[in-house]
Amino acid sequence: MRYLIIIEPTNTGYSAYSPDIEGCIATGSTKEEVTQNMKEAIDFHLEGLKLEGYEIPEPKSISSYVEALV
User: Fold this and answer.
1) In the chain, N or C: fewer CB atoms in 10 Å?
2) Which domains are present in the chain?
3) Cα(first)–Cα(last) distance of the chain, in Å?
4) Collapsed DSSP state (helix, strand, coil) of residue 3
5) Are 18 and 38 in contact (CB under 8 A)?
6) DSSP SS3 for 22
7) Would the pLDDT of 44 be above 90?
8) Mean pLDDT over the full length of the chain
9) Going by C-beta distance under 8 Å and a sequence separation of 6 or more, which residues neighbour residue 51?
10) What is the mean pLDDT of residues 32-53?
């Protein structure tokens, strides 16, 4: 499954979350690091849900950019 992740800059690097997986977050010093950390966090989170018998959330979020007139 492919999940959308949102990456945001912070004062010390980057943070990320997935709108489809509540409570799953990661941080990293670079975009590459936070992306890898988020992949690991998602894998770990989903494995935990599976082991506990919870439903695995289906990916449903999409992203798009719009041009703003400023």
Assistant:
1) C
2) 6-51 (3.30.160.250)
3) 37
4) coil
5) yes
6) coil
7) yes
8) 97
9) none
10) 98
Residue 49 has pLDDT above 90, yes or no: yes
One-letter amino acid at 70 equals V
Residue 26 identity: A
For residue 14, the cross-strand partners are 9, 28
Return the residue matching tokens 């990320």.
Answer: 16
Q: Would you state the structure tokens that stand for residue 40, as one six-digit string? A: 């690991």
DSSP letter, residue 54: P
Burial group, residue 38, by CB count within 10 angstroms (0-12, 13-18, 19+): buried
Q: Report the percentage of the chain scoring pLDDT > 90.
A: 99
